[in-house]
Amino acid sequence: MKELAQHVALVTGAARNIGRAIACDLADAGADLVLVARSDRAGLDETAALVHAKGGKALVIQADITKEDEVAALMSAITKDFGQLDIVVNNAALRAEDEFEEITLAQWREVMAVNLDGNFLVTRGAMALVKKSKAGAIINMGGLTAYTGAAKRAHVVAAKAALDGLTKALAHEFAPLGITVNLVSPGLIDTARHGRSAGQPDHHKRHATLLGRRGLPEEVASMVRHLAGPHGRYITGQTIHVNGGVYLP
């Protein structure tokens, strides 16, 4: 039996790139998936098709994770369709680049809402189900610049750095429930970027990995699979960097 058989995993930002790779790897491990994105229904359907090809079930839901009522509706749908939730992967993020003096309060709050508030709302909403799991795992997705800093990313860096603290706090709080909480921090990953995140980030141009190449979404996904599975049950409160050696903590 595969290591995540009879498990249900929620992945936000699952329409493409790292989120899609995570969903596919968890499906390969035997999990059924709840796939969430705000607007890219076509991308979610493509991810769902890949999950189905691996033998997994996929519940596709468009939801804005920054809105409390939509998160509540999401959790109700999971309860109705699966009746359980074992793994939460908070992957959705907005990675805009703006000169600091040009960042409006609305732009600041937009980035904070997606990158930090969304993690809070989804994790809080999921707890009623995850607490019932015998192998609950919360996995937050960080970012390289939270540790190196980066120009034109004050809002993103601040939000991602806050996730490190949130992860540690929740690891303490959820440990008595047998729930692990970790943060995976990808760095210099070869992904397609759209909208305000389009184009090669400035910090990508300024850094090089020790391994001499960019990482693949699948290499990040494999770490998430490990943390979600039975071999990751003694790991909690940790930040794990998947970055080819571009940053050495």
What would your notes on this structure say?
The structure is a single chain. The protein has 249 residues and is an alpha/beta fold. The chain has a single domain, classed as NAD(P)-binding Rossmann-like Domain (Rossmann fold). 43% of the residues lie in helices and 14% in strands. It contains eight helices and seven strands. It has helices at residues 17-28, 41-53, 68-81, 105-130, 145-148, 154-174, 202-206, 217-228; strands at 8-12, 32-37, 58-62, 87-90, 137-141, 180-186, 239-242. A seven-stranded parallel beta sheet has the order 3-2-1-4-5-6-7, sandwiched between helices. Helix 3 packs parallel to helix 4 (105-130). The protein is globular. The N and C termini lie far apart (37 Å). The mean pLDDT is 95.
Overall pLDDT metric: 95
Uncertain stretches: none
How many structural domains does the protein architecture include? 1
Q: What is the ordering of alpha helices and beta strands?
A: EHEHEHEHEHHEHHE
Main β-sheet description:
7 strands, parallel
CATH topology-level fold name: Rossmann fold
Helix % is: 40-55%
Distance between the termini: 37 Å
Q: Which architecture name does CATH use? A: 3-Layer(aba) Sandwich
CATH C-level category: Alpha Beta
Count of DSSP strands: 7
Tell me, what's the shape? globular
What proportion of the residues form beta strands (DSSP E)? 5-15%
